[in-house]
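Troubleshooting log. The previous run stalled partway through. Resubmitting the same three chains, unchanged.
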Amino acid sequence: MNKTISLACGNGGEENNELISKVFYKAFKNDILEKGEDAAIIHNGELAFSTDSFTVSPLFFAGADIGKLAVCGTCNDLAMMGAKPKYLTCSVIIEEGFVTADLERIVASMKQELEINGAVVVSGDTKVVPRGSVDKIFINTTGIGEVLKSGISANAITNEDVILVNRDIGCHGATIFAAREGMEMSSSLKSDCASLFPQVKALIDGGVEITALRDATRGGVSAVLNEWSKQSNICIEVEEEKIPVSDEVKGICEMLGFEATALANEGTFVLAIKKDHAELACRILKEFNPHAEIIANVTSRHVGKVVLNSSWGTSRFLEMPNGELLPRIC
Amino acid sequence: MCLSIPSKVVKIDKENNIATVDTMGVSRDASLDLMQEGDVKIGDYVLLHIGFIMNKIDEEDALLSLETYKEIIQVMDEEDRQKAILEDDECPNRGT
Amino acid sequence: MALELKNLYDDFRDAKTIKAYAKIIQEDAKKLPLPINIMEVCGGHTHTIMKYGILQLLPKNIKFVHGPGCPVCIMPKERIDHAYALAMQEDVILVTLGDMIKVPGSNGSLQDARSKGADVRFVYSPMDCMKIAKENPHAKIIFFAIGFETTTPMTAALLDVVIKKDIKNIFFHINHVTVPEAMAALLSDDECKINAFLGPSHVSVISGSKIYEEFPRDFNKPVVVSGFEPVDVMQSISMIVKQFVENRCELEVEYKRAVNRDGNLNAQRLNDKYFEQVENFRWRGLGDIPKSGLKLKAEYDIYNAEVIYDAILPKEPIDDHKLCICGDILKGKANPPECSIFGTACKPTSPIGSCMVSSEGACAAYYKYGNLI
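Second attempt completed without errors. Output:
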């Protein structure tokens, strides 16, 4: 580990995982934590418990804002464990001079999103700090959910499963880059930020045999697939041309030299579903977004790694994203 | 070398010598400072590199390349077809 | 048919076309008198080759030697230390392009400088310096310019605007390098195993294909200037193989839709106005290569950060780690997996040599995409 924490340590990729295991897991050792799931399953498997902090900049962007993100982020982590989001806390750290009307806008977004999840905020905290101590506003939400379907785990994926995504990938990351100062672009791109519980509920109600779910936030779909291949000791072989990517996201990726699989998402999740139920799962998901797709098989070709197979017969590894996401120049 | 993407010119701002280009639904502004005045027109395909237009893509040459690719695919398809026929002819299970 | 933007992407990445060329290359390669080593000079080509698995489509008698075509990879440590020293100055905002941020110097990378409080920003275009300068009138904006011939005219264009608009707080640290000198230097080593070159795509757009004429003529090495899409690369490999089979040694252009003999004369004029060749530029892994870099002409000293900050800039050349074999990798004498520290002490997150430093370097590309080759 380096002497100081670099920006890369927050990227959701290799450095982030190193920081988490070498500093936090080392100190907070316990079985529940080390499972490394999206939310902790506690209280005899009845409840799911998760926390997340939101520091996105800009605060308002096409498709969402930091408020919507703060509710979706935590509720989605609960949903990914098959739990219905019920109670949230909301803690904010506000920079002196922040515009009150903006704060009201953010809170209104949060309210709207809570309604979609059927959850309520039951406790909170507010801090205001001197100018320069935070970048406008940071929000933390912690959530408790009621487990509707147990046994969902990233450690249990086998070659009886196939891998799906629920929609086209990379929209959030691409939107944020396009909106950020210094990258003057205009496009019809917008963040995919959305609550996923309705989709998870539909799958559970439809009787789909779900092995694992994970929302592809920082580090993108690439991070999820790599984490799963390590946690379950499998090889995930992706058919490259099956990965759904919109033209607009492709455009940003071309311009800046990114790969869509490394871009963050806030409403896109990856599923491991038993082979016989895959088509059914895909049909249910397509009701929410037409781009749901089966993208990969599970094999033992290179255990612990993710392989991308091209449509012209070549293969390469899809590595865990590392470093800050920087545009390539050449 | 040097990440550069084909884009289509959709607008020209003569005063600031800037063109607006479109790349698969994403549009951005790029400087025309490296191009001859009047050389770039709306509808042209250009190469973009770090915020500048570097040159124009020659449409005729591009189309010629695509023609070449069509031809070699045809040849490959024909060869594959012939091979399939031959394999079929030599199949021991085939009745006469 | 009318050309659409989609054609310029999809058709040059078409799976069937790639397969068709793979077949042609396999057939022609059977007639090759000897195995051939092709060097792709440019990092963008290394990226294409790795990303699209092109090596898996080639017969065993065609190999690739991955060239020094990455301006970040070849930056000597002492010049990275220049960037670090400049960034740590109180009133300086150091601005540079993408990958430079991660390259480690003796004290750390620009990323490390930033976590120590230095104001370091990466930009998509040199012109972004204008906005930064305007928003920070009391700061000194130093543009740490890197890149080959493709990127040089954009730096010149920024200086042009800075002079025209009399902007007082933008300065330049120039690290532009040129490709043909490096190619010639590689060939000067008797043990160099390169038989032919895949010429860079966009360097050639700016300087024209004329800059490679010496290679078939004086060195007996064919050059095919290639586009950077996978179909372009496959077609170019096919053209090289045909040259060897037909006993020709020529400069050919595959990337006809973008490259001609003369290049972009406007851009060349801008370069000539502000820059001149240096006596020597030290390439990490390759050593001193005469006339292979550029510097600002003396009349622009007032914009030259290397002159203004001369007192604080380290001068001693710094050698690479003794186990680093980047020099040999760049000359085709070795491949990344043959290096004793590849993937262990030397990784993308902790690079030791130039080839691992940027995502375009041969070692980084092998680390990321390799093993399946």
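Takeaways: The domain at 35-147 of chain A is CATH 3.30.1330.10 (60s Ribosomal Protein L30; Chain: A;). Residues 258 and 326 of chain A are 8 Å apart (CA to CA).
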